[in-house]
């Protein structure tokens, strides 16, 4: 049993104590410290999983599943945790009260130093995400999803403007609807099998037990997760919520918050559901994903505001993960493994690049005082580092090398072509072209000659470097070999054998 | 047909009511109430599952009962947050409308 | 006979739910919802789940009802949102009925004999010295869920506070009514509150072996606190008050501390010291009851109004 798994969930919570009891400055430093500790813990977990070549486990309270709740870190979970921890730490640094912030005159509260509520929510997100990646009990995962919702919704309306409040309320209602659907599925599963432990359930379901009720339960849980992940056609809440929030909040919402329900969708259909059922469900997800890529991609092209454009691009990029499901569920060994690696790598690279782009967009808007695309001509001269971070992050969305998005999309494309799914291959390419359209549009505007005199301000350089670092991270993922990654396969299929004593 | 079956069917009907309310409610408050009805139906079905699992000297399987208690509390938290958001939103909207009228007058 | 009772109860429940959904007036809908919650509590008793019944009545109907009534009072009388297209009504009705029928069929098709964890709980419960199996599941076997649900409760208060006009979320929430409390409500508060506090403490004490526990007790104590506030017997505390914040943190972080101590005493996170399980569990329950009562009360009171100017 590895205590690191427990620490991953509890350490971020410890940071709440100074935030609620001591002053904002002390609390903020403690919060950043805990976010750094969180990176160290998740890195430690990833290192142990890689070293040992097998999953880590923990039975909380000493009660093994199915009576107790089990935590388990396999390669996939460890990779997601490390990615989320890094994004949260970088965003925390971006949001902290910087060296010159106390004297510098700033108009928007989001631009310099966030209120301590922001750091409370950031730490709670860290706890919720780690729990969502580690918990192996469907009800504990429900608690994780709720924790995530309660930490994410107030992020949207930290400034209390009317538009933000209504976006937050819509987001909350969608998320709650999603939780109830998910919970209904969990209830039916318990009624059928008397356990909620994923590894046990996978064993029970493998022989087709549960019949149509089990299929309905999985469908309900998936619909709930889709509402929380803003998967087409349940994406309507995402653009106003993600574009209206302060930049640091937008970055975590788009980069990591929606990744938890997507991760669970992958868990559900590649680790829990029996293969025949996954083969039936796969095309449904792929159609939703294709619609998201094409529809939200076209809408992103038509946007007039930078942050809304990036938010629609998030709704579109989620689609790529869904293209993976039919490809990964086929019985075509190596090619299905390639699609699975591609889909999961896409989750990681999209998180890094999207965080970079939202932070960069926030800096651009701070420099210019607005984010209307028509008025951003020549902003590249005022905010060169931010524009570079935006452009490099955009490489991943377009699927151009060197970037994580390139590797992920080539894997999906290869798998689709090898399995004869021409329509999926076409969607991957069309989605890349659409992303190219909206990313290049912004870059071209930023680099053109300014129409009028630019304001006499400079971007906040150290914040821009944080965005750039995230964009470089997304590029680094692009130097992976184009083959199924053994690390992500560690610990699959799910079992407690040799994980718990 | 036993009482337990009846409650199971009632739970399913409550879920139906909740879905109808979510689809057709005119305002956010109606949706919040519908969400609570929907949640109540889901919990009731869980209660039926628990009652069916009675055994070992317990009138109902204790695990689903404990999960429902957790679920009720989480649903309350959601209701409270949504209600607070709604109140704040309507206050801000009223302020914006007042400012707009003032501007018109001047 | 009892089948008839159950049938009538189910029909009433359904009528209550339809009333909530179909009523146009917000206030009437909330009152129907409170009644629906009480009926649901009765249904839980019929399903042999008294702990859930108490929780449903105290929190699902009671405190939720207060929150919703306050919300109705703060909203303008005429909602500006347009009603959905009435032509969609039959479509929505059909979808809802189809879902209810499919779900009903799924419930009736659940396997017989029903799978259950009751036997596992019965085997493991004696080691904890607890008599109430639900408390055992909540605080021992699935303690992680309960611990994190306390964090959810705390976060929802943080979310409510974040809606304050003051970015630092300081000051006192607005009073429940602007006028001084009328004499009868002050009298009621003085008489009822001690009785209510006793009931709350009894629920907490009984929870280890009989139905009851931290949530039910916390809800009753929160209601008594609100009664005292309404009767002007105590002043609403300011959110930045250090003592108040310690009370908020006592539950989740006291529980977490016991969890860490489990490593030293039982060799595992969230394990209880062998031999002293019951004493430690009751200590945890006291801490979380305190936090639940304070958190629930503050959630009802709403966001603080900002720093007072003196």
TrEMBL record, chain A:
Pfam families hit by this protein: Proton_antipo_M
Membrane topology of this protein: Multi-pass membrane protein
Biological processes, Gene Ontology terms: ATP synthesis coupled electron transport
Subcellular location: Cell membrane; Membrane
Transmembrane segments: 75-96, 117-135, 141-158, 170-193, 213-236, 248-269, 281-302, 309-327, 347-367, 379-400, 420-444, 464-482
The keyword Lipid metabolism appears for this protein: no
Keywords: Cell membrane, Membrane, Transmembrane, Transmembrane helix
GO molecular function annotation: NADH dehydrogenase (ubiquinone) activity
GO cellular component: plasma membrane
UniProt cross-references to InterPro entries, sorted A to Z: CPA3_Na-H_Antiporter_D, NADH_UbQ_OxRdtase, ND/Mrp_TM
Ranges of residues in domain NADH:quinone oxidoreductase/Mrp antiporter transmembrane: 135-433
Protein family (similarity comment): Belongs to the CPA3 antiporters (TC 2.A.63) subunit D family.
Protein known as: NADH-quinone oxidoreductase subunit J
From TrEMBL, chain B:
Compartments (UniProt record): Cell membrane
Record-linked InterPro entries: CPA3_antiporter_subunitC (IPR050601), NUOK/Mnh_C1-like (IPR039428)
Listed Pfam families: Oxidored_q2
Sorted UniProt keywords: Cell membrane, Membrane, Transmembrane, Transmembrane helix
Membrane-spanning residues: 6-25, 32-54, 66-87
Chief location of this protein within or outside the cell: membrane
GO terms for cellular component: plasma membrane
Residues spanning the signal sequence: none
Membrane topology, as annotated: Multi-pass membrane protein
The family this protein is said to belong to: Belongs to the CPA3 antiporters (TC 2.A.63) subunit C family.
Protein name listed in UniProt: NADH-ubiquinone oxidoreductase chain 4L
Organism taxonomic ancestry: Bacteria, Pseudomonadati, Pseudomonadota, Alphaproteobacteria, Hyphomicrobiales
Automatic annotation (TrEMBL), chain C:
Subcellular location: Cell membrane
Ranges that cross the membrane: 44-69, 90-110, 185-208, 214-234, 246-273, 279-301
InterPro entries, per the entry: CPA3_antiporter_subunitB, MnhB, MrpA_C/MbhD
The entry's keywords: Cell membrane, Membrane, Transmembrane, Transmembrane helix
Main location: membrane
MrpA C-terminal/MbhD domain: residues covered: 11-76
A Pfam entry, by short name: MbhD
Membrane topology, as annotated: Multi-pass membrane protein
Cellular component, GO annotation: plasma membrane
Keyword Transmembrane attributed: yes
All copies of domain Na+/H+ antiporter MnhB subunit-related protein, residue ranges: 187-302
Keyword Electron transport applies: no
Family: Belongs to the CPA3 antiporters (TC 2.A.63) subunit B family.
Name of this chain's protein: DUF4040 domain-containing protein
Source organism of the structure: Xanthobacter autotrophicus
């Amino acid at each position: 049993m590895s205590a690191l798994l427990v620490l991953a969930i509890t350490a971020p919570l410890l940071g709440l104590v100074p935030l609620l009891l001591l002053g904002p400055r002390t609390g903020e430093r403690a919060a950043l410290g805990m976010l750094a500790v969180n990176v160290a813990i998740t890195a430690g977990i990833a290192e142990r999983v890689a070293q040992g070549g097998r999953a880590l486990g923990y039975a909380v309270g000493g009660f093994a599943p199915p009576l107790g709740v089990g935590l388990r870190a396999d390669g996939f979970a460890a990779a997601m945790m490390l990615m989320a921890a890094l994004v949260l730490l970088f965003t925390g640094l971006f949001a902290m009260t910087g060296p010159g912030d106390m004297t510098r005159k700033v108009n928007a509260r989001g631009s310099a130093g966030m209120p301590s509520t922001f750091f409370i929510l950031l730490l709670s997100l860290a706890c919720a995400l780690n729990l969502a990646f580690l918990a192996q009990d469907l009800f504990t995962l429900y608690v994780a999803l709720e924790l995530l919702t309660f930490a994410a919704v107030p992020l949207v309306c930290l400034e209390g403007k009317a538009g933000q409040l209504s976006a937050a309320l819509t987001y909350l209602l969608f998320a709650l609807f999603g939780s109830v659907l998910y919970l209904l599925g969990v209830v039916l599963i318990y009624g059928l099998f008397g356990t909620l432990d994923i590894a046990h359930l996978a064993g029970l379901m493998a022989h087709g037990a549960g019949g149509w009720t089990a299929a309905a339960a999985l469908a309900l849980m998936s619909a709930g997760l889709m509402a929380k992940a803003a998967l087409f056609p349940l994406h309507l809440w995402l653009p106003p919520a993600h574009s209206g929030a302060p930049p640091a909040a937008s970055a975590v919402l788009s980069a990591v918050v929606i990744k938890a329900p997507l991760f669970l969708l992958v868990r559900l259909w590649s680790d829990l559901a029996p293969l025949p059922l996954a083969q039936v469900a796969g095309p449904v997800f792929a159609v939703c994903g294709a619609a998201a890529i094409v529809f939200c991609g076209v809408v992103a092209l038509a946007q007039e505001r930078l942050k809304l454009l990036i938010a629609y691009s998030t709704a579109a990029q989620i689609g790529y993960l869904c293209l993976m499901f039919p490809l990964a569920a086929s019985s075509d060994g190596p090619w299905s493994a390639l699609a699975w690696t591609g889909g999961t790598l896409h989750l990681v690279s999209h998180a890094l690049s999207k965080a970079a782009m939202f932070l960069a967009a926030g800096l651009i808007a701070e420099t210019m005082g607005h984010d209307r695309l028509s008025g951003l001509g020549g902003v590249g001269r005022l905010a060169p580092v931010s524009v570079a971070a935006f452009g490099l992050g955009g490489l991943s969305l377009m699927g151009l090398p060197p970037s994580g998005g390139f590797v992920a999309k080539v894997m999906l494309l290869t798998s689709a072509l090898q399995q004869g799914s021409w329509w999926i291959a076409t969607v991957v390419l069309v989605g890349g072209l659409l992303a190219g359209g909206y990313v290049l549009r912004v870059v071209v505007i930023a680099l053109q000659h300014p129409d009028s005199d630019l304001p006499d301000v400079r971007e906040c350089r150290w914040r821009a470097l944080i965005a750039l670092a995230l964009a470089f991270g997304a590029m680094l993922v692009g130097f992976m070999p184009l083959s199924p990654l053994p690390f992500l396969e560690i610990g699959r299929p799910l079992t407690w054998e040799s994980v718990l004593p | 047909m036993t009482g337990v079956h009846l409650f199971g069917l009632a739970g399913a009907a409550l879920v139906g009511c909740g879905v109808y309310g979510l689809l057709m409610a005119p305002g956010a408050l109606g949706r919040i109430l519908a969400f609570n009805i929907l949640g109540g139906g889901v919990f009731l079905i869980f209660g039926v599952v628990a009652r069916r699992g009675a055994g070992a000297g317990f009138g109902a399987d204790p695990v689903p009962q404990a999960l429902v208690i957790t679920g009720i509390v989480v649903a309350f938290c959601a209701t409270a947050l949504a209600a607070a958001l709604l109140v704040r939103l309507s206050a801000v909207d009223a302020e914006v409308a007042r400012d707009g009228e003032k501007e018109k007058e001047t | 006979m009892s089948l008839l009772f159950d049938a009538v109860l189910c029909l009433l429940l359904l009528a209550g739910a339809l009333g909530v959904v179909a009523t146009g007036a917000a206030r009437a809908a909330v009152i129907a919802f409170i009644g629906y919650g009480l009926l649901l509590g009765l249904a839980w008793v019929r399903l042999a789940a008294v702990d859930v019944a108490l929780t449903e009545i105290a929190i699902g109907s009671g405190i939720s009802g207060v929150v919703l009534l306050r919300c109705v009072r703060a909203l303008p009388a005429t909602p500006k949102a347009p009603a959905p297209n009435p032509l969609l009504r039959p479509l929505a009705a059909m979808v809802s009925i189809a879902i209810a029928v499919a779900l009903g069929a799924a419930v009736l098709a659940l396997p017989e004999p029903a799978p259950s964890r009751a036997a596992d709980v019965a085997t493991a419960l004696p080691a904890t010295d607890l008599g109430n199996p639900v408390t055992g599941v909540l605080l021992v076997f699935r303690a992680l869920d309960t611990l994190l649900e306390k964090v959810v409760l705390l976060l929802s208060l943080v979310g409510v506070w974040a809606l304050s006009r003051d970015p630092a979320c300081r000051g006192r929430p607005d009073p429940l009514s602007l006028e001084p409390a009328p004499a009868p409500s002050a009298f009621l508060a003085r008489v009822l509150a001690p009785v209510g506090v006793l009931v709350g403490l009894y629920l907490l004490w009984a929870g280890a072996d009989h139905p009851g526990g931290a949530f039910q007790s916390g809800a009753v104590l929160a209601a008594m606190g609100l009664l005292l506030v309404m009767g002007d017997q105590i002043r609403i505390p300011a959110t930045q008050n250090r003592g108040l914040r310690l009370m908020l943190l006592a539950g989740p972080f006291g529980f977490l501390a016991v969890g860490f101590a489990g490593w030293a005493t039982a060799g595992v996170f969230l394990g209880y010291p062998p031999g002293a399980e019951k004493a430690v569990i009751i200590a945890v329950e006291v801490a979380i009851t305190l936090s639940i009562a304070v958190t629930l009360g503050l959630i009802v009171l709403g966001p603080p109004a900002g720093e007072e100017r003196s």
